[in-house]
Design a protein that fits this description.
The protein has 8 helices and 15 strands. It is globular, with a radius of gyration of 19 Å. It has 285 residues and is α+β, with helices and mostly antiparallel strands. A hairpin with a 2-residue loop joins strand 3 and strand 4 (42-43).
Amino acid sequence: MTPKIYINGKLYDKADAKISVYDHGLLYGDGVFEGIRVYEGKVFRLAEHVERLYDSARSIRLEIPMTREQMAQAVNDTVTANAKRTGYIRLLVTRGAGYLGLDPRKATNPQIIIIVDDITLYPPELYENGMEIATVSTIRNHPNALNPRIKSLNYLNNILAQIEAVQAGCFEALMLNHKGEVAECTGDNIFIAKRGILKTPPPDAGILEGVTRGAVLELARAAKIPVQENALTRHDVYTADECFLTGTAAEVVPVVKCDGRALGTGRPGPITRQLRERFHQLVRS
């Protein structure tokens, strides 16, 4: 089946889905987006994703020309049009087409784009055996420059870190913030477990508050696992009993090595396995 792409209220075949080369989203990365999952025909936590999209847009003074309810309906309708039972949604809003130049007033008619497709982030064996990550020199954007809580179309910060991860032979990079604290990975949030306590960096560490991150925190608290959101250093990661990453595409993936150091036993730990299973139960339900 040819994918159907939503652009401003209409569905187009993939080959016919086009926007202007003068769009500020293309020229300057001026726009916002969300990555969302579909499980068994149901869009996972759509309201949370839509709310974060509008928060990001408001932060960059981008007016989205439809209500949250209309946006959610457009996403569901596009999923239905693509007959996608399990898959991935990329929801984008650009500033729109205009003239060359940074002035956002030159761009009009924001473009709302919804893509429904498949995504495979990591090989299946990494979920069973765990993955290795490497700390990179590219730090997370300073909150006073471009706040990481804005999910913008300008992902060059993450891409540069991803290039370093690939050069180190890893699938993911551990990014620090401007204070040298652990922030997040290029596309995932990070968790560690130490003596039965689950720990993850707080929002003010310079992270994007992931929807999957929030779901895992809820699952941990429901399972009576103590949770702390506080500043972490690389020492905390190196000495952790367990480590895992969370993300829309990644879901819950264990980490067993960082910067060449084995973490814990060098195998996915019991808290990681428990939360991964609970997350699968959540999305299946």
